[in-house]
Amino acid sequence: MAARRTLKKGGSGNGAAGSIPTAPNPELIAALHDLERDRNLSFDVLIEALEAALVSAYKRNFAREAENVGNPVVVIDRADGSYRVFARRTVVEEVNDALIEVSPSEAGSAYKLGDNVDVEVTPKEFGRIAAQTAKQVIVQRIREAERDMVFDEFHDKIEELAAGTVLRYEQRNMFIDFGKAEAILPVSEQVPHEAFRIGQRIRVYVMEARKTNRGPQIIVSRAHPNVVRRFFEQEVPEVAQGSVEVKDVAREPGSRSKVSVWTDEEDIDAVGACLGPRSSRVNNITEELHGEKIDVIQWSADTAAYVANALAPAKVIQVHLNEREHLAEAVVPDYQLSLAIGKEGQNVRLAARLTGWRIDIHNEEQWAEVVEQRAEEAKELEEVAVMAEVAANETGVELTPELLAADEDLIRKLQELQRASGEPEGETEEEPPAEDAGNGAQNSDSGG
Q1: Are the C-beta atoms of 93 and 104 separated by less than 8 Å?
Q2: Res. 297: pLDDT tops 80
Q3: Does domain 6-150 have CATH number 3.30.1480.10?
Q4: pTM value?
Q5: CA gyration radius, the chain
Q6: What's the CA gap between 275 and 375, in Å, rounded?
Q7: CB–CB of 282/275 below 8 Å?
Q8: Is 70 exposed, middle or buried (0-12, 13-18, 19+ CB in 10 A)?
Q9: Which of 66, 279, 305, 419 has a CA-to-CA distance to 195 between 20 and 30 Å?
Q10: Residue 168 near residue 177, CB atoms below 8 Å
Q11: 3-state DSSP call for residue 102?
Q12: No. of H helices and E strands in the chain?
C-alpha cells in the first residue's frame, strides 16, 4: 500500500489555512459498533461508506475550496471519530497536474514514487456538515442492510413454504405480510375459488426473490405443483426424513392433484405413509388446500405399471406402449371407462401429466375392435409389400410399403400390373414353371 503522510495544515494554498480537524465524536464510533453488532454490518465497510459520503459533502458544500483540491479524501479516526479532509497527491517523476501529483523533491526523502502525500485542508465548518452527512449515511446503510437481510432470508427460502398474513389486495393481486417484508401473490398464482380475508394467515410457496430500487421483491404462489410437494414434506415424517420420496406431482389447482411416491425400504409402505392413519395426513393437506382432492399413487420404474397406477381409482387391465409415438394405451373394464377418463377428462389428463406419456383409454370392447382393425391394416400392409416387390421386379424401382399405402392410384396400377402378369393379388409365392403347370393339369384330368 502506498505510504501517506500529512505535510502541513492548509499547505495546499486553497484558503484553508488554520483548518483544524473536527472535534472527537466517540458517539459516532459507538453507534457504528452497535450497527456492526445488531445489523451484522462490517465496521470497516461502514467507515468507508461514511468517508466516501463525506467527500461528496465536502465537494458540494465547499465547492470553491474543492476546486483547488484535485483529489480530496476524508479520513475518520477509528478511535475518537474525528474527521479530517486531505488533498491527496501522488509522487511522480514528472508532474503534469500539480493538483493531484507531486515531485519527489517537493514530497521529501521519506516518500518514493507511487506514494500518496496528504495535505490537510479541513474547513472550519466541516464538523456540522459532517455530522449531518454521517446521520444520513447511517440511516441509509441501515435501510440497505435491512433490505439485504430480507433478500438473503427469502432467497434462501426459494422453493420453500413461508407463512404470513394477508395484508391487502391491489388489482386482484394479494400482498402478504411476512413481518420484515411484503410478498406479492399474483392473480396468475392464486387458486380459483380460494378466498382469504385481510389479516388471515396463509402459507405460500416462494417462487422468486429479486432486488429492486424499492427493496426486495418477493413473488409467491398457491397454484404451483410444488405447493403440494412441500405440504407432504411437512405433514409426512417419512417424506421429511427422505425414506419416502415424492417423485412427481400433477395438479389442477383447487380441484385435484395426483402425487406419485416411492421408497426403496421394504418395510415401508410409501402410499400408506403418505395417507396416514385413516387418511389423516393427506386429509390435513386437503384441508390446507381448501378441499383439493389428492390421489396418492405408487411410482414405478415400469412405465406400463406406472401408467396403470396413475389412472387410479380406475382399475386397469393392461397397458400397451407405443415408444415411437410416446403413447400409452390403457384397457379398462367396460364399467370403469368413465371413471378412468374422469369428469371432463380430468383423471386421464392428470395421469398423462404425471407420467409424461400421452394416454388413450379403451374399454374391452373398444380394444377388441382396435386389435381387429390393426390386424386388417397389417394384412393390407403385407399385401402392399407384395405389390412393392412386384413393382421392383417389373420396373426395377424400389417402393416402400409406406409410400404405396399412401398412394391409392399407385396401388391400383400395381394391381393391374399383377393381373396383366397373371399373378394373383396378394400371392407371396412364385408360380411354378408353365410346363409343370401343364403336367399337373393333365394328371388332374387323367385322374378324373
Answers
A1: yes
A2: yes
A3: yes
A4: 0.63
A5: 42
A6: 44
A7: yes
A8: middle
A9: 279
A10: no
A11: strand
A12: 16, 16
DSSP H helices, 293-407, are: 303-310, 337-341, 346-355, 364-395, 401-405
Instruction: Write out the CATH class of domain 157-221.
Output: mainly beta
Q: Exposure of 134 by Cβ count < 10 A (0-12 exposed, 13-18 middle, 19+ buried)?
A: buried
Q: How many CA atoms lie within 13 A of 353 on its CB side?
A: 14
Yes or no: say if 323 and 312 are a contact pair by the CB < 8 Å rule: no
Residue 341 phi/psi, 5° resolution?
A: -75, -40
| pLDDT (tens digit per residue) in 96-131 | 988 888 898 888 888 889 898 888 888 888 888 888
Q: What are residue 123's phi and psi, to 5 degrees?
A: -70, 155
Could you tell me which CATH class the domain 228-299 is placed in?
Answer: alpha beta
297: β partners: 260
Amino acid at 371: V
The domain locations on the chain are: 6-150, 157-221, 228-299
What pLDDT is stored for residue 187 in this prediction? 96
Q: Cell 414434506 maps to which residue?
A: 233
Say if CB 354 and CB 348 are below 8 A apart.
Answer: no
Residue 24 is placed in which grid cell?
472527537
Q: What is the mean pLDDT of residues 76-103?
A: 88
